[in-house]
Known about the structure:
Layout: E1 9-13, H1 17-23, H2 28-49, E2 53-60, H3 68-91, E3 94-99, H4 107-120, E4 126-134, H5 136-152, H6 163-167, E5 180-183, E6 202-205, H7 215-226
The chain binds 3-methylbut-3-enyl trihydrogen diphosphate (2 copies) and magnesium ion.
One 3-methylbut-3-enyl trihydrogen diphosphate binds next to α1.
Amino acid sequence: xxxxxxxxxxxxxxxxxxxxxxxxxxxxxxxxxxxxxxxxxxxxxxxxxxxxxxxxxxxxxxxxxxxxxxxxxxxxxxxxxxxxxxxxxxxxxxxxxxxxxxxxxxxxxxxxxxxxxxxxxxxxxxxxxxxxxxxxxxxxxxxxxxxxxxxxxxxxxxxxxxxxxxxxxxxxxxxxxxxxxxxxxxxxxxxxxxxxxxxxxxxxxxxxxxxxxxxxxxxxxxxxxxxxxxxxxxxxx
Length: 237
Ligand code: IPE
Ligand code: IPE
Ligand code: MG
């Protein structure tokens, strides 16, 4: 099975901000701020190349366990970047959505998420999904709970629980699953990102630290992707 040159849905684990700062003997939050610029680079790249969906792993359900000052700094940065960028993203036709456990965020952040989603809901050029307080296991557990609720309410028979029923209840159910996963920062693991959705994604890793991300690095990922044979469990050809 051939691979189209351009992925339909790019998923990115934006890793390496802390090490980028440490190498400069600066506090980790400086790396996160530099990382926000790389987010803009990545969004620009997707808009230019016609990639229709981009899902960015910004903050995992496990990242809450980091020191208070780092978590607090990230929350401030989150608010700052959203306030600064949302009008321009909207103007460029970006539809923003947040996936993850919103209840753990402050009311101020939840309100911003809600208003960014409402403002951009009619856009269709790029579906930009921010995974924040997101965990893949949590996502699947929520889907299991939703299925149980449907069964308990008599809307669904247990025998009708199949892959499609689960797929319809995990995050981003309305989008094609990511066909390319990029992880910066040199580690080659999933770190509890989109576990269900990544089942057949092509994986691409780079030692580049997230704040150093540029269009050339993303282009290398795309070039590599376009040369891969995706077999989906079938025989090659
Ligand atoms: C990724 O960078 C951003 C978040 C997880 C919020 P890290 O902060 O994990 O950077 P490293 O991996 O420690 O360098
Ligand atoms: C994954 O990076 C989460 C995000 C990029 C938001 P981590 O730095 O949290 O992952 P581990 O700890 O290296 O697995
Ligand atoms: Mg990390």
